[in-house]
């Protein structure tokens, strides 16, 4: 499976990749986007099986990326790994069709809990 990791922080993308590997999902094809526009383009063109997105990114926020994908009929599994967590954000994410919402800091156990049902 192809997993797109979208975060404007290179270090955070590396932490997500490392945590995916620690959780046992390192054998998937992991690709990275450095901002929301790149994430939207890559999700559209490369058709990943899963998108793990930050909420706040330049050009397009994570929720804007999700909404644009859904508006275009793209039903890729999409969720958030973010440092912010308000009830409004969770509600907006669920309303837009997000599959998960993980709050930083996170652990390999949390990734396993969330991604095992998605990635098998």
Overview of this structure, please?
With 120 residues, the protein is an alpha/beta fold. The chain is 46% helix and 20% strand. It is built from five helices and five strands. A five-stranded parallel β-sheet has the order 2-1-3-4-5, sandwiched between helices. Helix 3 (62-71) links the parallel strand 3 (50-53) and strand 4. Helix 2 (36-45) runs parallel beside helix 3. It is globular and about 35 Å long. It starts with a strand and ends with a helix. The mean pLDDT is 96. Keywords: Phosphoprotein. Residues 2-119 form the Response regulatory domain.
What are the salient characteristics of this protein?
120 residues; alpha/beta; five-stranded parallel sheet; 5 helices; 5 strands; CheY-like_superfamily; ST_Response_Regulator; Response regulator; phosphoprotein; Sig_transdc_resp-reg_receiver
Brief summary of the model shown:
This protein has 120 residues and is α/β, with parallel strands linked by helices.
Summarize the helices and strands and which ones pair or pack.
Layout: E1 2-6, H1 10-22, E2 29-33, H2 36-45, E3 50-53, H3 62-71, E4 77-82, H4 87-96, E5 100-103, H5 108-119
Parallel strand pairs: 1-2, 1-3, 3-4, 4-5
Helix pairs in contact: 2-3
